[in-house]
Write a structure and sequence with these properties.
Elements (H helix, E strand, L loop, with lengths): L1 H35 L8 H13 L3 H16 L5 H21 L9 H21 L6 H13 L3 H19 L2 H21 L6 E8 L2 H12 L4 E7 L3 E11 L3 H11 L4 E6 L20
Antiparallel strand pairs: 1-3, 1-4, 2-3
Length: 293
């Protein structure tokens, strides 16, 4: 009976996640087709490249988004968690489908300032919802996470550099005014996305107080490829406790919460922003080394 109840809760959780991802993808597609594309304003990442190709060739934006995202998903399929890839594929499919559904509709506005402002806000809400429920709309985010895991390159900075290259290309192809509008939209979208994710920045620090430190540390290492620092603590009322500390990206927060929920539902976790990291943060060590710092 207990196993059935747990299975039922997991199914309900997955259902909520996929509904949230679908709603976020639909909102993001609405912002792209009804605000940004009619005014030739770009989003970043694969979607931005797709808009450029659509502008030059007239090929359907939804199909381009799927085609250009596919290589990133194939590369990430063996390195990322299975559920992350499933949710990413689901999000991208819904996103591409509704890009085609919204394409024939009359655009909301032709005013560039309104398109940038409202398009950026609505896109940020949609993309934020997708990430909050464990999905991903853009293959560049998957690539950035893989580079982070292998070379310790910051996820946020990698995505930013990639997008700057895209906006530079926009300046040459569509004119500098479109590049500046697109860059402004990107910054608005990023800020709203962070707000939807409850203020999560690109680098976060998690402090976990638990009675099951070894299991949580092992799961963090296994599923996220990150080591943790284990410290001893003592609560005023609860007595001796173990404190885990680790640094991770905003894209890994969802997975971390799932790990802690399954390993020790009574654990206390505090997540804070990290303004700067100095020194070499240890990630997955060679097999002969310990998983703990």
């Amino acid at each position: 009976m207990l196993m059935k109840a747990l299975d039922r809760k997991q199914v309900v959780k997955w259902l909520i996640d996929f509904v949230g991802i679908a709603l976020g993808a639909i909102i993001a597609a609405f912002a792209i087709e009804e605000f940004l594309v009619p005014c030739t304003i770009l989003d970043g990442g694969v979607v931005g490249i797709s808009i450029i190709v659509n502008y030059l060739t007239g090929w359907p934006l939804g199909i381009l988004t799927i085609l250009l995202n596919t290589p990133f998903l194939l590369i990430g399929s063996r390195k990322m968690g299975k559920m992350f890839i499933v949710k990413a594929v689901f999000a991208m499919m819904i996103f591409s489908l509704f890009l085609e559904i919204f394409a024939p509709m009359e655009n909301i506005t032709n005013e560039y300032l309104l398109a940038v402002s409202f398009g950026g806000v609505i896109l940020g809400i949609g993309a934020g919802m997708v990430i909050r429920f464990g999905g991903c709309l853009d293959g560049t985010e998957t690539a950035a996470i893989l580079l982070n895991k292998k070379f310790k390159l910051p996820v946020g900075q990698t995505v930013l550099v990639f997008n700057i290259l895209i906006f530079t290309a926009v300046g040459f192809i569509m004119g500098p005014d479109r590049a500046m509008y697109s860059l402004l939209t990107y910054f608005i979208t990023s800020k709203i996305l962070d707000m939807v994710e409850s203020g999560m920045e690109k680098t976060k620090a998690a402090m976990i107080i638990t009675d099951d430190a070894k299991e949580i540390a092992a799961q963090i290492y296994e599923r996220l490829g990150r080591t943790v620092t284990i410290m001893e603590g003592e609560g005023l009322v609860s007595g001796k406790k173990v404190v885990l500390y680790c640094v991770l990206t905003r894209f890994e927060i969802y997975e971390l919460k799932d790990i802690i929920k399954n390993a020790d539902a009574s654990a206390f976790i505090a997540i804070s922003d990290v303004g700067e990291i100095i020194g070499s943060h240890i990630k997955r060590p060679p097999p002969h080394e310990s998983a703990d710092d």
